Amino acid sequence: MRLHWPLAALTFFTLACNNDDASTDAGPATDVPVVSDRPAVIDTGVDVPRDVGVDSGATPLFSPCSTVTNCRGIPSAECIAVSDGYPLGQCTRACTMDSQCGGGGICLDYGTRRVCFKRCDAATDCRAGYNCFIGRGTGDAAERSCFPFCTDDAQCPGAACNRYSRFCGTLDETRAENGATCGRNLDCRSGRCFEEFNVTTRDPSGYLDGQCYSRCTVPAAADYNGATYPRGDCPTNSVCVREAGQVAGETALCRGSCTSTADCRGGYICLKPSRGVDAGTYTNGYCAPLNCHYMTQTCPSGATCQTTRSDDAGVATSGFCLRPPPSDAAVTDASADATADAPATDIPATTDAGVTDAPTDGG
Predict the structure, then answer these.
(1) Burial class (CB in 10 A: 0-12, 13-18, 19+), 135
(2) Backbone torsions φ then ψ of 231, nearest 5 degrees
């Protein structure tokens, strides 16, 4: 069965994006989906025409809606409204199999039931206010679906666009902003945390005390031509960190911004990306896990350096800071707490690949 983790407080609904939240400048992410118990879905074997909701004057699936009456002619119709976090609402239907969702839909878990979502290959396949994400653990590009990614309050009538979570809804300012510490995804305004330890495996990530982040839309290439690394549509005090080869309109990561390493916590360095060959670095950057085998970068008190790479002579060239992992009890408690608080949310399938060998610190 494909999983779409159940909906809870929408500020913390998280889904893996079509670029797998990848960034080339920091350590591996450790987000683990929170999966709560749900009733088994029984496949009745009853099918409907694959063009359901398209012909006979019916409202097309995945059209905007404010109430189910807007979803005319769709069997077992439902409206996932703005109040549920979905920009301008979305017409869908109950399902037990993909064929009930038409040729362009897919049947996924939504809370304790299953409904249709629109398939996609890229953000351009989704309507305004949505982006193309893939649920963690599926590993199949065919599983990509359109999920909320609001960019403007106009997409959330009667509410506001939460630019941390990208769902319609109120921003909970009691939770941590990008770059701040976090022990789990739900500690962050975005519902996304690079956790210090993987809840399941207890593998360390290099993110001492965790680090909150969110998502952004890569701005135009011209925005990266100046001396300052661009913020894009990220919240205040963040920059939109694109990975190599990404172009405008794709999804990247909002990371806490900095102008020098003094702006970052222990175990982190202000990483200022290169502006290009012979162009130097930007005047600002973002706080990334330091490389404790590079020059004078050292781990803070209570942490040790774990080597991640060595050269042919066996000399360590890359590593990140590490504290002792939590006990089994601590891991269990953290997982249970997250499930109880929001039985549904944390699915950023990030692949933030390896600590940079030689980050540049202009501060």
Answers:
(1) buried
(2) -80, -35
Helix-strand-coil percent breakdown of the chain, rounded to 5? 15, 25, 65
Q: Global pTM?
A: 0.70
Q: How far is CA 148 from CA 33, 82, 126, in A?
A: 18, 10, 10
More confident residue, 341 or 289: 289
> How crowded is residue 266: how many other Cβ atoms within 10 Å of its Cβ?
15
Residue ranges per structural domain of the chain: 185-333
200 versus 287: which is more confidently predicted? 287
Q: What angle do CA 211, 193, 361 make, to 5 degrees?
A: 30
CA-based torsion, 267, 273, 279, 283: positive or negative = negative
* Average pLDDT score, the chain: 76
**Average pLDDT score over residue span 191-215:** 90
Ramachandran bin of 123, using left for φ above 0, alpha for ψ from -120 to 50, beta for the remaining angles: alpha
**Which residue in the block uniquely carries the two structure tokens 């909906």?**
7
pLDDT of residue 302: 85
Q: What is the pLDDT of residue 135?
A: 53
| CA 234 vs CA 58, 259, 307: distances in Å | 38, 17, 33
